Amino acid sequence: MQIYINGKAARQNGDNMDRFSIAVAQSGGPTAAVNSSLAGVFRAASLCPAIDNIYGAINGIEGMIGDELADLRRIITSDEDISLLRTTPSTLLGSCRYKLPPKEQSGNDYIKIVNTLDKHNIKALFYIGGIGSMDAVVKLDEYFRAVGKDIRVIGIPKSSDNDIPVTDHCPGFGSAAKYAAATIQEITRDSRVYSTQSITVIETMGSRTGWLAASSCTLHANGESAPHLIYIPEAGFSDEKYLHDTAEMVKHYRAVITAVSEGVCGSEKSAAEHLERITAERFGCKVRSVKLNVMQRCSSHISSLTDLDEAYDIGAAALDAANRGESGVMMAFRRIPGEQYRIEIFTEPAVNCVGKIKHFPAEWINESKNGVTAEAVDYFLPLIKGEPVIRYENGIPVHFRATQ
Amino acid sequence: MQIYINGKAARQNGDNMDRFSIAVAQSGGPTAAVNSSLAGVFRAASLCPAIDNIYGAINGIEGMIGDELADLRRIITSDEDISLLRTTPSTLLGSCRYKLPPKEQSGNDYIKIVNTLDKHNIKALFYIGGIGSMDAVVKLDEYFRAVGKDIRVIGIPKSSDNDIPVTDHCPGFGSAAKYAAATIQEITRDSRVYSTQSITVIETMGSRTGWLAASSCTLHANGESAPHLIYIPEAGFSDEKYLHDTAEMVKHYRAVITAVSEGVCGSEKSAAEHLERITAERFGCKVRSVKLNVMQRCSSHISSLTDLDEAYDIGAAALDAANRGESGVMMAFRRIPGEQYRIEIFTEPAVNCVGKIKHFPAEWINESKNGVTAEAVDYFLPLIKGEPVIRYENGIPVHFRATQ
Question: A186, A379, A400, A401: which to substitute to probe chain B, counting the most B Cβ within 10 Å?
Answer without folding.
Answer: A186
